[in-house]
Model the fold of this input.
Amino acid sequence: MKRLNKSGITLLSAVLLIIVASVVVLSTTVFIVERLSQEKTYQLRTQCVYLAQAGIHNAVYNYRFNDLAANGYFTKGQTNIDANNFFVLGANAADALMVNTVGAAIGPPNSDLTGLRIQNATNSNTITIDRMVVTWNNPLRTLQQIRINGSNVFNGNLASPANANITNFTLNTTPTIYNINRIRFSGNINVAGLTISIQFVMTDGSSKTLTVYPDSSNNSFIVKATGKKTGSSIYRTIQATYNAVTGRITSYNEIPAQITP
Done:
């Protein structure tokens, strides 16, 4: 009887040992598989960042290259690096609107803001300005006229901030610089400490706001680039602002949105 008890205990111990060993092996296997999966995901995400960075530099390079011959621009859409890697460039209307403030001046006469120029930074699609909200700090004057490319797009009498519902102005895909010939006020606007800013509201709902006087050394576009690998749902998107006056990228950060061609 004692021998049977000892045999039973030995058998039970062996079974328990096998179960424990099986659990340990299974846990180790699951851990290794999970670890390898995480490592693969990390590698894919890192590769997508590199692809997005390549997209940003591609857009800036193309803008600068084209700017040597005429007016700079970049092309939106997908660029394939090879069969498995690609990036997609995107920009909404406000992103692509460049406003050059370098020549901004008051007058003559002193009732006019002159010297502003605008440009479409992409040759992929037209962009259209729907409204211009003009803000200034001389309460004695009102906004009376906006003229772009030789035509009056607004006539009225609005106090600051003036929400000017202009005749829609479209910047086409042929690289062209358009003059904002004048923004006219009701009288001498040129007081000490004068500042003028404009919010450009586009027909796609996007907007761009910047100080146009005094000169803010601004002539920027925003480009977004998504890096992806074929067959993977993983992506990374980077947004950058490039200032054509200084020739520098002035902001650079990751955003959660995915750009699709």
